[in-house]
Amino acid sequence: MKAKADIAVVGLGVMGANLILNMESKGFTVACFNRTTSRVDEFIKGRAAGKNIIGCHSIEELISALQIPRIVMCMIKAGRPVDDFIAAVIPHLKTGDIIIDGGNSHFADTTRRVAEAEHRGLLYVGAGISGGEEGALSGPSIMPGGSRAAWEAVRPIFQKICAYTENGEPCCDWVGDSGAGHFVKMVHNGIEYGDMQLICETYQMMKDGLGFSNEEMRSVFAQWNRGVLDSYLIEITSDILGYQNEIGETVLDKILDTAGQKGTGRWAVSSALDACQPLTLIGEAVFARFLSALKSERVAASKVLSGPQAIFTGNREAMIGDLEQALYASKIVSYAQGYQLMHAVAAKEGWKLNYGGIALMWRGGCIIRSAFLGKIKDAFDAKFDLVNFLLDPFFKQAIETAQAGWRRVAASAVQLGIPIPAISAALAYYDGYRMAVLPANLLQAQRDYFGAHTYERIDKPEGEFFHTNWTGHGGSTA
């Protein structure tokens, strides 16, 4: 074992412990610390036994175990705990030392922390990490941002422990200044919410609409995973549908239908509202989780409120094909909306994001990894300033091919009384985005009628505003 560690990790939860083991397996010596120090001893005697891992029982001991520049990474709960950790560790650091937050912190908090650390002569990195406990151990997607001067010191570690694409490209690269890394991870998580909701809606259409058994659905998802929908989430959905306990029961059927969340989806929607961006699909995915949590209300309402009891009488195999197209087209829209949000916030923050590179970072290791992401990278490689990749020839053609089935699914769901809020929102966004003229002229007239908010005219220069005295009693306005 080296006399000094290459990096320290604080927080021995599943993610922190697995990252430490990942780092050690790649040749790094790692110092570790946990606020509950008994967990340090358990880890050192257990999974870390015989490895190049130094257990520490205080912040002072942890910092003294590090080589210079000292790199300290926290894997703890977002919010106040991160600020408390920074306050505890800063007195023991010197100019040029590096703090890394590998948790799911809000990007605005990271922006603040970067500025505060740099003011003290320290470097700060907010690194979004995706892949769950398996990815942390075997190779996650890592999205670092913050103090650019820290990248050369942390790059050798991050790009050794991260996932790699099939072409040998690391799923980790510098994202941008201040909170850019955690911002991109937040968008990633929002897209993850959308992907999961789209899959759940498709599952309900097959289960309740078509009357498919779990085994039939497992087979369908396994087949889809060999086509355009090839992805981690489709793969695990097939596994889940086929998983049975020791007495032959499908575990999925025993799980309560109330969804949890940790907040990153809400942050994405809130950021979209602040940036005036139509993140409609991800918004519906977040709201669907809220609705699922109203279990007792839904059970009571199911005994009172009526709806169609229609049975699908069409061609089930044809509908499966339509569902595949609807899921694929909606997925394209979800990512397109996420990228629009990244464009808007990057412009506001002054970040120069590499959009193709971000797709590459998501190509392996992370929860939303899929073959589909390679096409997004190709789109931005072909046109780096692409406003919306729905306009890219590949995605334009993909939507055109999927459109008829997508619409049939939406119509069938309405007739069957099956909620598909995310798929419907995706289609509504697509139809709105392709419209040269929307009814917002009437909306502006209404605003001007009741509030004299003024409006622009199509026959006058942009930026010139007008008011109509709609009732004859409204007076004039400037």
In short:
The protein is an alpha/beta fold.
Structure description:
By secondary structure, the chain is of the alpha/beta class. The chain has helices at 14-25, 37-45, 59-64, 80-89, 107-119, 132-138, 151-161, 180-209, 214-224, 232-242, 264-274, 280-292, 295-302, 316-349, 355-361, 372-382, 393-416, 421-433, 440-451; strands at residues 7-10, 30-33, 53-55, 71-74, 98-101, 123-130, 141-146, 176-177. It has an eight-stranded mixed beta sheet with strand order 3-2-1-4-5-6-7-8, with helices on both faces. α8 packs antiparallel against α14 and α12 packs antiparallel against α18. The longest helix is centred in the last third of the chain and has 34 residues, at 316-349. The mean pLDDT is 95.
Helix/sheet category: alpha/beta
For the biggest sheet, the summary is: 8 strands, mixed
Q: From the structure provided, what is the oligomeric state, counting identical versus distinct chains?
A: single chain
Order of helices and strands: EHEHEHEHEHEHEHEHHHHHHHHHHHH
> How much strand?
5-15%
Low-confidence runs of at least 5 consecutive residues: none
Tally of alpha and pi helices: 19
Morphology: globular
- Give Rg in angstroms: 25 Å
Mean pLDDT: 95
With strands numbered from the N-terminus, the spatial order across the biggest sheet is 3-2-1-4-5-6-7-8
Percentage of residues in helical conformation: 40-55%
Number of strands: 8
Give the termini distance in whole angstroms: 75 Å
